[in-house]
Design goal:
InterPro entries: Nucleotide-bd_a/b_plait_sf, RBD_domain_sf, RRM_dom, U2AF_lg
Order of helices and strands: HHHEHEEHEEEHEHEEHEEEHEHEEHEEEH
Mean pLDDT: 76
Organism: Rhododendron griersonianum
Subcellular location: Nucleus
Helix content: 25-40%
Shape: elongated
Largest sheet: 4 strands, antiparallel
Low-confidence stretches: 1-39, 180-184, 268-277, 292-298
Strand content: 15-25%
Radius of gyration: 34 Å
Number of strands: 18
Structural class: alpha+beta
Keywords: mRNA processing, mRNA splicing, Nucleus, Repeat, RNA-binding
Number of helices: 12
Main location: nucleus
Distance between the termini: 100 Å
């Protein structure tokens, strides 16, 4: 069997790469040719040879694992670019605890196909790429994106390179996701809510949306750097039948200096069916009241306005009316000292009565009103959910109950 002779400096080079001492050679066993026989041989510096071999070995390693370190990201918005995608996925990988290759960014390269709105995002390691698969459905610049394996992914080969499934202990809640749910915001009944004033809090927006029923999924899109609202959100209702009702009731409503745009995220707005019109009318009345508490800084006052707390028909009889007033004083006086209780009654001549169906509670201080608003909002009355909001003191003083 023939032997391969290596140049001494090449042998030294491999010794440096492996971190071990080069083996001792016996000069008399395999004498090297002399310069008289072959002339002077060009000798590459040890450092240059070391770097060249290292680069070759590294590239071989990267090529062998690239299919398992890349993820496909589909559904990108037109504004996406390589830098924004790399920054976003590095940020969310860190946020969920998905970085396993040490400090630094998880993303090492991004290729975007702008025409087809997808990207290949290359991670540092196979394990980090597998963790990134848990990000399917995450909201990127206002749009949910699909995270999949690339078409050249080889499952059997990848299994020998590292974990093929996301770590079950990832903190997906940190980026608004739950395991296997795609954020709870996929499907044709996903609603886009745009034009939200930036001062609206997550709690306030949920209260507004939940006027139509409980939510299955909700995501207020926030700036990655500041954590502030970007003015739009997505939601899905548990009862999908109210999707079009909510869109019709909320779309076009003025909120401060903004106008809401509310529609199905994946298609144009669909009008509610005729049998849903009564529900829509009721919802619009609820929205008008909700708007009162969605003001800048949600200013608290000494006056609380309740709706869905009384039956209008019962207000006609004088004796019953007085009993209702007294019951309100007793029950609502538990939150603070009441100064006045006003419940507008139906007009005997049939003309519209300002504030009919509402209850106004005036407390001696804001603290009492605040406790009442917190304690009464959401209570049930005859199967209806009470809505409690702060009411402007100047309007109440002027007996303007239609605000």
């Amino acid at each position: 069997m023939g032997l391969v002779r290596l140049h001494p400096e090449t042998i030294a080079c491999f010794g440096q790469i492996s971190g071990t001492t080069p083996p001792v050679m016996f000069p008399t066993m395999f004498p090297l040719p002399t310069s008289q026989q072959f002339g002077t041989l060009p000798i590459m510096p040890v450092q240059a040879m070391t770097q060249q071999v290292f680069d070759i070995l590294l590239e071989i390693s990267l090529q062998a694992t690239r299919h398992a370190r890349r993820v496909y990201v589909g559904g990108l918005p037109p504004s996406a670019n390589e830098q924004s995608v790399a920054t976003f996925f590095s940020h969310v990988m860190s946020a969920i605890g998905g970085n396993t290759a040490g400090p630094g960014d998880a993303v090492v390269n991004v290729y975007i196909n702008h025409e087809k709105k997808f990207a290949f995002v290359e991670m540092r390691s196979v394990e980090e790429a597998s963790n990134a698969m848990a990000l399917d459905g995450i909201i990127f610049e206002g749009a949910p994106v699909k995270v999949r394996r690339p078409s050249d992914y080889n499952p059997s080969l990848a299994a020998t390179l590292g974990p093929s499934q996301p770590n079950p202990n990832l903190n997906l809640a940190a980026v608004g996701l739950t395991p296997g749910s795609a954020g709870g915001l996929e499907g044709p009944d996903r609603i886009f809510v745009g034009g939200l004033p930036y001062y609206f809090t997550e709690v306030q927006i949920r209260e507004l949306l939940e006027s139509f029923g409980p939510l299955r999924g909700f995501d207020l899109v926030k700036d990655r750097e500041t954590g502030n609202s970007k003015g739009y959100a997505f939601c899905v209702y548990q009862d999908l039948a109210v999707t079009d009702i909510a869109c019709a009731a909320l779309n076009g409503i003025k909120m401060g200096d903004k106008t809401l745009t509310v529609r199905r995220a994946n298609q144009g707005t669909t009008q509610p069916k005729p049998e849903q019109e009564n529900v829509l009318l009721h919802a619009q009345q609820q929205i008008a009241l909700q708007r009162l508490m969605l003001q800048p800084a949600a200013l608290a006052t000494k006056v609380v306005c309740l709706t869905q707390a009384v039956n209008v028909d019962e207000l006609i009889d004088d004796e019953v009316y007085e009993d209702i007033i007294e019951d309100m004083r007793v029950e609502c006086g538990k939150f603070g000292t009441l100064e006045n209780v006003v419940i507008p009654r139906p007009n005997p001549n049939g003309e519209p009565t300002p504030g009919l169906g509402k209850v106004f509670l005036e407390y001696v201080d804001v603290d009492g009103a605040t406790k009442a608003r917190q304690g009464l909002n959401g209570r049930k009355f005859d199967g209806n959910q009470v809505v409690a909001v702060f009411y402007p003191e100047n309007k109440f003083a002027e007996a303007d109950y239609d605000g």
